[in-house]
Amino acid sequence: MDIRTQNALRQYQSVNVDATAAIASPHRLVQMLFEGGLERLASAKGHLERSEVIPKSEMIGKAVGIINGLREGLNFEAGGELAINLDRVYDYLQRRLLEANLKNDIGMIDEVAARLTELKTAWDEIGPQTSTAPIEGEPGEINSTA
């Protein structure tokens, strides 16, 4: 595959993810973050195994950013102790990835991937919460206050 085809494919994938995120439920958005984080970690591990240091670092950086997105989504008022504990877990995972990046340690990447997989599995089992509140506006209209 030539470079132009690769760039076009990346652009398509970016637009596809953006479009999916625009219509996804909050539950699905969190699932997408977990999936994206795990994909970046798998990619980082592959780059590390091939001694590709720069792409490895980029993928770890993206995984750290995704975990930061999960942290920013925590609702400490509604989540209470659970949100506090998740914040601590996410902080630990971010620090572990930074250490893995510095030490080129596949074991640390695997550890973070295992914890993210556990969190994703738990999140998937919760399932999206259904709302009984009516949505304002006309059918098909996006309501920014919902």
TrEMBL record:
Localisation per UniProt entry: Cytoplasm, Cytosol
Q: Alphabetically list the UniProt keywords.
A: Bacterial flagellum biogenesis, Cell projection, Chaperone, Cilium, Cytoplasm, Flagellum
GO BP: any one term: bacterial-type flagellum assembly
Pfam short name (any one): FliS
What's one GO-annotated cellular component? Answer: cytosol
| Segments for region (Disordered) | 127-146
Similarity annotation:
Belongs to the FliS family.
What's the protein name? Flagellar secretion chaperone FliS
Q: Which species is the source of this protein?
A: Candidatus Contendobacter odensis Run_B_J11
